[in-house]
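Moderator note: this is an archived Q&A kept for reference. The question asked for a predicted structure of one protein chain; the sequence and the answer are reproduced below.
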Amino acid sequence: MRILVGVMSAAVLATGVGAPAVGDVLDDTVESMVAAGAPGAVGYTRTGDERRHAAAGYADVARRERADVRQRFRIASNTKAFTAAVVLQLVGEKRLALDAPVSRWLPEVPGDITVRGLLNHTSGLWDPTTEKEFWASYLAGDRGYVYRPADLVARALAHARVPGYSNTNYLVAGQLIEKMTGRSAVSEVYRRILVPLRLADTSFPTVDPQLHGRHLHGYALDGRTDMTVFSPSYDWTAGAMVSTLDDLARFYRALFDGTLLRPAELAQLRTTVDVKGVAMGLGIDRLEVPCADGADRVLWANSGGGPGFGSYAFISGDASRQLVVAMNVYDIEEELSGRSPVPEGVSVARALREVFC
């Protein structure tokens, strides 16, 4: 799931005057998320090599444990950028071609779907997670219920095509990684990204519903229903990863500064297509922030939302500025009913202006 839409509209981003300094705005941002209804929120900014952190509210409501910037959280669809990076590395190694049909390697996939179509969500593959029935076992209390990625893909392929953003694209991308490398997609993410970047606080669970080590607890919108224990199996290479502010920021910096991708593949990552009003690249979106000087700043963004957790990551094209924010609230039942899964009033607009303008 992704939660960028709705928190950065033109109205929300309208330029203000007399704005406070970046550090103050970061504090204000996480505090405003808590005031809006998030049990806790944490944030990170970087300008050049200057980093700031902020935390507000509670990591564990029942125990009254304060939120801490070092705690882990589920990053949901931010996982897609890791998966896209591995696929693009395989493209750079000439083992895949972005505009080749996926059916060349996975014959069950319709022949008009390309590798690029998976990564920029133009394949039309149906997303089973948009249906209430999909979540029935979880919402009935079986938080450890396990879905197999192959079964989810088969379920999607048996359904009519539906244009737009879909988790299924990145499940197929995970299958493609495994087909091309002969290793698990999870092990490829570790081998190619987590280990070289020393992302020691980032993990990639596939069936374990527990969060380990220091972590935020995740909650539904009532702020009391604890959603921390939840099987990540349904999300796999589309959204199962766990990370921290610093690790997530380090990954996105490496993605855009040329550490992970060569120039040709980085250029492809930034090649966008309009998908229902969103400029989607390969695993990341392009945004424009209006600034007080009358010019727009281009930045790249991703977000993740899943039971109990929501997160946002933003970076400038030259990788010199970043903003990462996470909160421990996301209500899947509300989303399935057509309502906002996060508290009304949650916004990162002021922080975006101060970091990137």
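Archived answer notes: The CA atoms of residues 198 and 247 lie 8 Å apart.
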